[in-house]
Sequence to fold (661 residues):
Amino acid sequence: MTETDFRAGYVQELTRIAPDIEAEDIEDTDHIQDDLELDSMDILNLVTALHARFGVDIPEADYPQIATVELAVAYLSKRAA
Amino acid sequence: MGKQSSIVFSPMDIGSQGTHASQPRNDAGWRDARALIDGFDGRLNIAFEAVDRHVLAGHGAQTAIRFLKKNGGHEDMTYEDLQTQTSRFADVLTRNGLSPGDSVFGLMGRVPELYVCALGALKAGLVFTPLFSAFGPEPIRTRMEIGSARVLVTTAAIYKRKIAAWRHELESLKLVLILGDSAPEGCVALKDAMAPASTSFETVRMDPESPALIHFTSGTTGKPKGAVHVHNAVIYHAFSGRRALDLTPGTKYWCTADPGWVTGTSYGIISPLVNRVTMIVDEAEFDLDRWYGTLEREKIEVWYSAPTAIRMMMREGAEAAAPYDFSALRFLGSVGEPLNPEAVVWSEKVFGLPFHDNWWQTETGGIMIANQPGMTVKPGSMGKPLPGIEAGIVERSGDGLREVPRGDIGELALRPGWPSMMRTYLHEQARYDKCFRDGWYLSGDLAFCDEDGYFWFVGRADDLIKTSGHLIGPFEVESALIEHQAVAEAGVIGVPDETAGEIVKAYVTLNPGCEPTETLEQDIRGHARKKLGPAVAPREILFRNTLPKTRSGKIMRRLLKARELGLPEGDISTLETDET
Fold:
């Protein structure tokens, strides 16, 4: 799986959980809580969705590492490898 | 078992209660609690009790609030700083022609300005309403309309996204203050306004029964209700913080609730400051390591949190907490929804102390029933009534209320009259009066009382949804859903969720020509999130051809819920159209 796949998958899950956000409006460095206004339940749902999609188990301590598209792509690429 | 804290209060005999339930009772019985505040000869002001008097007594140099910034670092504010800043803010309001009784709305995250603005507004005798900053434009507008907002304090980003479009339609709104040193057109930069303001503002001496705070709470039908609290409530804030949370002068205290909800104001601003603690305010949202790190680094002694957060900690297991030192902790409290027994057992293992669950509501203004310091904690129970509070379990019968036998389930009711009880629902006297019957205040919660006098929460008596500790009215959510062009009807219920307690789920029927697709489901959810914000909008939407309705056309949420949970459907004699 390439970084492009991780990016697309992450953005797809994110916008499915928070469909008030348009995929094309998301900047790589937008923080999902501070900029995109996801709440903590959204984050838990996102973690579950990423797990189901990529088979990556994300412990709570690592949540900051999926907080932007840029960080998440790097994290998922590393963890899924 | 962990450390026990000493208790300085003895129960008070407040005598028998009057029958005029909706009238504030003669509160002579609260004399002992009143000794905790200063007052001015029959008049008082919450801000004086929380700030000014500590400075006068020589404690100005004590840190009142340590603000933890989202991106690291902190800012400390002493009681003297808080006095200076709140005086400036009170002066800004007065100079702008505002006077006691006018309403100030605060809409921002947990930043220093929020606390200055809340206490400064009270100082000037204005009525303060905190709003949750993650609300969408619709809940914000509704609440500001009901509260006839005169002043709004917010950030430029929130103003642009959620307010600017309708600001001029709200005629009452005279002043919009924007955090920082620049402001959009028609608004005033708070920093510029504060700079020349006077630091010697004299706190307005208020009649104890004059309104101080309005907290909005959801209704099953109709608009949200604005529960009005008066300055006299500070007596109960002082007392209950001391009695139920062990807040003593100098205690290092952390309340994790946002002031947008009543806990974050009563026990996140007023009670701790009145009791002269040093409190921690974290601007950031829940983050496991950040929270454990904060408990350790700040040497938190008393911690007041909520089941949703506790369950999130439990998900990561005890190992995640192992590297941290929690030895400063002496009391843990929890509120918002019932705390499951496992969480109490878990906290004893991880923190060496049990979480003490307690129960109260927006309407009660303060903690009513609690597992109190020094008391045996019964895991899963909300505890016992505080001294001076009389609680009962009642059922409604044809000609009135009657108390049910010990152990039976009924509606949790309280004898009104404590100082922080709401005085009315703003402009809704009839809805307020409906909360009282036969000398009881009816909470709308179902519970039972065991042989030892501990109360146990069972559920809501109405359709309100309890999610992450917040009460959400289905009507407000349904109203937003049917504004979507594809939606014909909507029924909204809460369904159990292991982390949030309940989550909001919607059943909708579509207008002719609309197809129930996944794309449409997302579009409707997106619409609801934009209108309502993520905390209020449904997490899940199901399409139906029809919804179960009564003969009068009311959607039977109760039936949707029973079916969702696989429970008996109960009395369906009023069912006219069934769900398909």
